[in-house]
Every structure is written in structure tokens, then in C-alpha cells.
Amino acid sequence: MSGIIIAAIVVGATGIGLGFFLTFMGKKFAVEVDEKEEQIRALLPGNNCGACGFPGCDGAAAAIAKGDAAPNICPVGGPAIAEQIGEITGGSAEAAEVKTAFVMCAGTCDKAKDLYEYDGVKSCLAAGSAPGGGAKGCSYGCKGFGDCVAACDFDAIHIVDGIAVVDRDKCVSCGACVKACPQRLIELIPVKRTAAVECNSRDMGKDVLAVCQAGCIGCHMCEKECPIPDGAIHVEKNIAKVDYSKCVGCGKCAAKCPKKVIKMFTVKK
């Protein structure tokens, strides 16, 4: 009986000793928590989309707390969250330039030709490895299988009439669709009033017209019509490109475009 009591005492003493040891070591090697960082992290939406340039919301919160990033780096949170974070850090909460995703393709089912019927995996990436880069006559165009749709966590992009279309009211410019598109057809553009070209084909005009009614033919008419000194739109490699830092949204290039592939945007409400 005495052996059992002695064993119990030894086990109890060992447990108590181990408890004290763990408490001591926990305090000695405890990682100091930045209260400011915790407050910032609590405000961030938690999408971990990486659009801020940091590895998730934890990384963003740490960077903001250390002063390595501005309070407004989270495009998902927007101005409201930026203002609250600015109050915590004492930094400027001025909203960064708001952007939205834009699909550089207007080749809908009725405008773009198919060379054959594709019956493979319903993925833009998979379709791109098919003969000719896919069934679509324009090898630069939207495949329409929605890799971008699957990547969007905000229900802001959908396949409509064979091409991806962005819902600007839902888009938070996280950039997930940009990364997901194997055609490199999606870019982030300013939400402010501006022009954007709905085509990404670098083919010569006659080759574009052979496969799509809504393609840029590189005619330079938009370029000649632009009133901005040095121009806010230029034809490069057979495709018109807008310099968003110069574009004032006058709409003259869009009005002059014979193929009507330049789209005008107004300020997001």
C-alpha cells in the first residue's frame, strides 16, 4: 500500500514540477504580441487574396503595424477600413486609386468564329493546349470556360455569351482573375472615367477580321483622334493600348474607332 502512495506522490510532484517548468519557459520564450497589429488584423476582411502585395491578411497587418505599408493597401476593405486602420496607426487613410478588372475581349459567340467544336476539359487552360490553341479562331481571345470565374471569391465575373464579363459593382480589384486567366486577357484598370480596348489580338487587321467582327485592326484612327499631347492611346504590335495615366475620358477615340472595340467607363457609383 505504501508503494502505491509513494508512486502517487512521485507522479504528483513530477506533474507539479513540470507545470512550473512549462510556465517559466512559456514566459521566458513568449513572443511579444503587437497590440496594434492585432487591432489591424481584426479589421482586415480575411480574404487572404494577396492583392495588397503581402502573404495574406496576417502579413498585411504586420506590415502596416511596422509602418512598412500604408493603411489603405487592402482593396477589399476599401476606404472605410483604410480610415479605421489610419486611426490606429496615425497614418494617412487617403484611399488608393480604385481599380477594377477589365477583360480585353469582345469576341462573343455571334462575333467570333470557331474553327471546330471543342469537346475536351472545360477549362481555359486545358482548351489552350488543344490544336490551334483552342477552337476559337482568334488564338488571343477569351476561351469562355471560366477559370477566372472559379478564382473569384466575390462573384464579380461571369461567362456571358461566350466571354468573361466583370461586374464592376462587385469587383474589389483583388487580381485573382488576372492571375487565373491563361490568355492574359484581364487587367486592372482605374475605375475613374477612362477608355479601355476590348481586344488583345496582335494579328494584322485582315487576319483579325477573318476570325472576329469585334477585334482591333490597328488602323491608328484612335491614336490620331486623341487630343492629349504625346497621346493617351497608341497602337503597339497591331493593337491599341491606353495609357491610363494620361487618359482623361474624352471619348474621342471610342467615337472614331471603326470596329467599336474601345469602351468608355464612367466613375463607379
Structure explained in plain terms:
The protein has helices at 2-28, 35-43, 56-66, 78-89, 124-127, 147-151, 176-180, 205-211, 221-225, 252-256, and strands at 99-103, 157-160, 163-166, 186-190, 194-197, 233-236, 239-242, 262-265. It is elongated and about 100 Å long. The strands form four sheets. Strands 1-4 form a two-stranded antiparallel sheet. The protein has ten helices and eight strands. The chain folds into two domains: 35-89, Orthogonal Bundle (3-methyladenine DNA Glycosylase II, Chain A, domain 3), CATH 1.10.15.40; 99-265, Alpha-Beta Plaits, CATH 3.30.70.20. The relative contact order is 0.11. With 269 residues, the chain is α+β, with helices and mostly antiparallel strands.
What's the topology here?
Blueprint: H1 2-28, H2 35-43, H3 56-66, H4 78-89, E1 99-103, H5 124-127, H6 147-151, E2 157-160, E3 163-166, H7 176-180, E4 186-190, E5 194-197, H8 205-211, H9 221-225, E6 233-236, E7 239-242, H10 252-256, E8 262-265
Question: Could you tell me the number of beta strands?
Answer: 8
Number of helices: 10
Structural class: alpha+beta
Query: Looking at the structure, what is the overall shape?
Result: elongated
In CATH, the topology of the largest domain is named Alpha-Beta Plaits
Specify the CATH architecture of the largest domain: 2-Layer Sandwich
Largest sheet: 2 strands, antiparallel
Portion in helices = 25-40%
* CATH class label of the largest domain: Alpha Beta
Count of all domains? 2
Q: Would you list the SSEs in sequence order as H and E?
A: HHHHEHHEEHEEHHEEHE
In order across it, which strands form the biggest sheet?
Answer: 1-4
Radius of gyration: 27 Å
Instruction: State mean pLDDT (0 to 100 scale).
Output: 86
User: What percent strand?
Assistant: 5-15%
